[in-house]
């Protein structure tokens, strides 16, 4: 038996005026998904338990079958694991975005223009973080470069009692002052952010980017604090070998902590310009190399939700279906084994709010051996209408694996 998880990050939404009152899932032409939905088990699942923030960390852990209340220690430690940072028990990590802030003074009056600095390239970002570490990276701080705008700060002997370190994608277009933590413990970190603007605004990389009409990466933004994670080995937990295919350090970090294969895919960006075919082929190769389950993570719908790009969110769903799922489905149909497929988002990322929501998400499970009642098309509304509901998110993996 082979198992495929098609995780469409942030795909679920609410009706969008620009789409004629429909959601991106309703608008998207997703032939493969909707064909399977006609004979699939369909319903809703609560991936973000009450009392937890609706991050991709918590939500994806749930879909993978892990209870965040048992194993979650913060977002950034998972990303640190992906980068290859060997954490000590006394280390505290923080996600270090490089962002675009407006040029208003003082720092508190600046606006969050872009939480990802215009999708800055990994090569450019590496130079930015190198400078940040040279200027700010003395004991107890060490900065590590990751992918695109996503990086990491490790604080030796730090604390997670930092007040509210707000994710930058939650405050797009807003003045940042009221979202800077007022905790005394956070004051040194806020100081690092302020200092970074002083020298990054004139960084050669940013001067060159502005000449090309691109947004400058003119400040770091620290959030997502946590400590060394402890996640049970996936094979030990479920008895099968698994792989995670993703462009995002967070997902690769979860995979590495869980002992799953995490192949690198050239051209995987986490946005709508990602190499959908390359990622699908990496998934096929993971199956061929002996994996029983492949967790295919696509970040593009989430990024489009954060940017309020309604048409691109529709395209992202369509590209996942036509460019990636076609390849994976063709392989599964021809490999000679029975297979089960789980399709779902981790959490909603509504275009109206441009940030994550804790609301339950639609799921569908297709089984090559069994025909369920199904739905005509896989959307938020058809999933709700079935009456199927999984209250405890981690149970969805047990259901997929028939545990």
- Run of helices and strands: EHHEHHHEEHEEHHEHEHHEHHEEHEH
Number of helices, counting only DSSP H or I runs of 4 residues or more: 15
From the 3D coordinates, which CATH architecture of the largest domain would you assign?
A: 3-Layer(aba) Sandwich
CATH topology grouping of the largest domain: Alkaline Phosphatase, subunit A
Low-confidence stretches: none
> What is the number of beta strands?
12
CATH H-level homologous superfamily name of the largest domain:
Alkaline Phosphatase, subunit A
Major sheet, described briefly? 7 strands, mixed
The side-by-side strand order for the widest beta sheet comes to 8-9-1-10-11-2-12
Could you tell me the strand content as a percent range?
A: 15-25%
Shape: globular
Structural category = alpha/beta
Output the CATH class name of the largest domain. Answer: Alpha Beta
Question: Span from first to last CA?
Answer: 13 Å
Could you tell me the mean pLDDT? 96
**Total of domains:** 2
Task: Indicate the radius of gyration in whole angstroms.
Answer: 21 Å
Proportion in helices? 25-40%
Describe the structure concisely:
The protein has 403 residues and is an alpha/beta fold. It has 15 helices and twelve strands. A seven-stranded mixed sheet has the order 8-9-1-10-11-2-12, sandwiched between helices. Strands 3, 4, 5, 6 and 7 form a five-stranded antiparallel sheet that branches.
Protein described:
The chain is of the alpha/beta class. The protein has 2 domains: 2-72 and 230-400, Alkaline Phosphatase, subunit A, CATH 3.40.720; 83-226, no CATH class. The protein has 15 helices and 12 strands. The longest helix has 25 residues, at 310-334. The radius of gyration is 21 Å and the shape is globular. It starts with a strand and ends with a helix. 52% of the residues are buried.
């Amino acid at each position: 038996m082979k198992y495929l998880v098609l995780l469409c990050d942030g795909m679920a939404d609410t009706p969008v005026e620009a789409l004629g009152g429909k959601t991106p899932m309703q608008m998207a032409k997703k032939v493969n998904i909707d064909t399977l939905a006609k004979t699939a088990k369909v319903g809703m699942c609560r991936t973000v338990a009450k009392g937890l923030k609706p991050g991709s960390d918590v939500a994806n852990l749930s879909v993978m079958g892990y209870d965040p209340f048992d194993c979650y220690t913060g977002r950034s430690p998972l990303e640190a694991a992906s980068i290859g940072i060997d954490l000590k028990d006394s280390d505290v990590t923080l996600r270090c975005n490089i962002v675009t802030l407006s040029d208003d003074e003082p720092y508190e009056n600046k606006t969050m223009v872009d939480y990802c600095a215009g999708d800055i390239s990994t090569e450019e970002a590496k130079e930015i973080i190198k400078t940040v570490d040279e200027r700010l990276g003395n004991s107890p701080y060490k900065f590590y470069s990751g992918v695109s705008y996503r990086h990491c700060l490790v604080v030796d002997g730090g604390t997670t009692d930092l007040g509210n370190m707000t994710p930058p994608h939650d405050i797009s277009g807003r003045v940042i002052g009221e979202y800077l933590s007022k905790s005394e413990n956070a004051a040194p970190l806020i100081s690092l952010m302020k200092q970074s603007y002083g020298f990054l605004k004139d960084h050669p990389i940013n001067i060159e980017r502005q000449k090309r009409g691109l947004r400058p990466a003119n400040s770091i933004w620290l959030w997502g604090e946590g400590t060394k994670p402890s996640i049970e080995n996936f094979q030990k937990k479920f008895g099968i070998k698994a792989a995670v295919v993703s462009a995002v350090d967070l997902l690769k970090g979860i995979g590495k902590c869980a002992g799953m294969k995490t192949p690198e895919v050239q051209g995987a960006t986490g946005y709508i310009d990602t190499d959908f075919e390359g990622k699908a082929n990496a998934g096929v190769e993971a199956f061929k190399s002996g994996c029983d389950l492949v967790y295919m993570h696509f970040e593009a719908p989430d990024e489009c939700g954060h940017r309020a790009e309604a048409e691109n969110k529709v395209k992202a769903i369509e590209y996942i279906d036509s460019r990636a799922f076609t390849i994976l489905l063709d392989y599964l149909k021809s490999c000679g084994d029975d297979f089960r497929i789980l399709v779902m988002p981790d959490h909603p990322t509504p275009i109206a709010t441009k940030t994550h929501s804790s609301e339950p998400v639609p799921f569908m499970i297709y089984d090559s051996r069994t025909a369920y009642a199904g739905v005509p098309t896989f959307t938020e509304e058809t999933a709700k209408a079935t009456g199927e509901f999984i209250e405890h998110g981690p149970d969805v993996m047990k259901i997929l694996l028939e545990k």
